[in-house]
Structure formats: structure tokens, C-alpha cells
Specification:
single chain, mainly alpha, 9 helices, globular
């Protein structure tokens, strides 16, 4: 992928992914790890009936915050591209990655659910699907998206964004995550059917259903350390990148050279 994109577009893609990963970590609110931990704890207390309630209680704030950040990233792509990359044309890469800022946390929360109910095979399969399909579709996007954009501008390569191949790679990764999410949703539906059948059998767990405020408190306690760690891990990278770019600017390095060195 790096060879196909070249130094400049690889730099744009690397910075864009760093930006997207940071927003995804913040948007997830630490819930992917919290969901798995909370469900595992409730199951150990013979309260497996609350598993689906924990999942849907976590999905609402997690997806709402992630969607808000995704929308802000899409609408403010031009501003962020100019500030972070000193290249307004890179906004197309941010816009292609913006849906992923919403999809990544949803994917993580569902994976946490399956880890919590001890279905690690499903979580692992979703990660394999995301990785393999992401790589294949990213490589395909490098060729496909420039052709689509070229068709939209009446078959002329003039006016084609300089980072259109990087945008295609970003769109491919997002599509791979979407496929993984579809797999998890189908697996969740199957899991809910099995839980419903089990509820009609002999091994019914008699624990009462917890109320939403109680579940939110449990999730908040479990999510706080994960969110703090994620924020520290991801925010230190943009901070380091900002210092690096400041040092380059002090040496009057061009924007083209900055992206290549990034």
C-alpha cells in the first residue's frame, strides 16, 4: 500500500488514521472494554439475563457520541486538513474516514459483548474479517476511487484530488469495518434467539432485571479507567506529531516534505 501511494499520500493517510483513531477512542467512551467486563461480572453472579440490557445500555451513549464526532469530522474536514496537514485537498481523505469514526466504537462494543458472554470465537472472527477485508478493499480502493472521481469530472484527470488514492484506501478500511459490523449484528441476532430458547428451558437464571440507571453506573465505573488510558495513549501521538511538525516548520520545511517525513 505504501508503494502504491508514495511518500506524500502515505503521510496523509497515516496522519488521517491517527486523527480518526483518536476520535474513535474518545467517542467510544471506554465502553468496549467496560461492556465485556460488566457482562462477565454479571454472568458470574448468575445475572446473565442482564447481558442484552447492558449491551443496549452501552450502545446508546457510545453510538451517539461517536456519531457526533463522525459528523463533526466530516463537516470540518476542510478545517482539520488545513490545520493538521497544511493541505486542503486532504479533506477528501478525512471525509472518507469519517464514517469509520462511528463504526469503530460500535464494532468494539459488540466485540466486548461477545467476549463478556464467553464467545471469544465470534469476536476473533469479526476482527479477522475487519483486517482481511480492510486490506483487500483498501488496495482495491486505491484504484477504484480515482476512477470514480475521474468519471464524475467528465473523464478528465484534471482537477482530480492529489490524494484520491489515499482516500480510496481510507474508504476501503471503513468498508472492511462495516462488513465486520454486519457479521457481528447477524451473530448478535443468533445469540439473542439462543438466549430466548434457553429462557424456556430448565436453566433459567432467576436474577431480577437491573434498571437502566444501575447498569449505567456499573458501565461508568468500568469504563472510566479504559477511557483515561485510551485518551492518554492516543492523545500523546497527536501531541508528538504536533511537536514534530512545529520543529519542521521552524526549519522552513515545505508542506510536501512534511508529509513525506511524517
Amino acid at each position: 500500500l505504501t508503494r502504491l501511494l508514495g511518500d506524500r499520500e502515505s503521510g496523509v493517510l497515516a496522519v488521517t488514521f491517527l486523527f480518526g483513531a483518536t476520535l474513535s477512542a474518545i467517542g467510544s467512551l471506554g465502553l468496549p472494554a467496560a461492556v465485556g467486563k460488566t457482562i462477565a461480572g454479571k454472568s458470574a453472579q448468575n445475572q446473565g439475563k442482564n447481558s442484552s440490557r447492558i449491551l443496549f445500555t452501552a450502545l446508546v451513549p457510545g453510538t451517539v457520541s461517536a456519531f457526533a464526532l463522525s459528523l463533526a469530522s466530516f463537516l470540518g474536514a476542510g478545517f482539520f486538513a488545513e490545520r493538521m496537514l497544511s493541505d486542503p485537498s486532504a479533506s477528501i481523505v478525512l471525509r472518507c474516514l469519517a464514517p469509520g469514526i462511528f463504526l469503530f466504537p460500535a464494532n468494539g462494543i459488540l466485540q466486548g459483548y461477545f467476549l463478556g458472554i464467553r464467545s471469544s470465537g465470534t469476536a476473533a472472527a469479526s476482527r479477522i474479517i475487519a483486517c482481511l477485508s480492510g486490506v483487500i478493499l483498501a488496495l482495491a480502493g486505491v484504484f477504484v476511487l480515482p476512477l470514480i472521481l475521474k468519471h464524475w469530472i467528465s473523464g478528465s484527470s484534471e482537477g482530480l484530488p492529489a490524494v484520491s488514492r489515499a482516500a480510496g484506501a481510507a474508504a476501503g478500511w471503513v468498508a472492511g469495518t462495516a462488513l465486520s459490523l454486519i457479521f457481528l449484528v447477524l451473530a448478535l441476532r443468533t445469540s439473542c434467539v439462543l438466549i430466548q430458547k434457553k429462557a424456556t428451558g430448565k436453566h433459567i437464571d432467576t436474577a431480577r432485571k437491573e434498571k437502566i440507571p444501575s447498569l449505567l453506573r456499573s458501565l461508568t465505573v468500568a469504563a472510566a479507567p479504559s477511557l483515561a488510558l485510551s485518551a492518554f495513549f492516543f492523545l500523546r501521538k497527536p501531541a508528538g506529531l504536533a511537536l514534530f511538525r512545529y520543529a519542521l516548520q521552524s526549519r522552513e520545511t515545505s508542506a510536501e516534505q512534511m508529509l513525506s517525513l511524517t
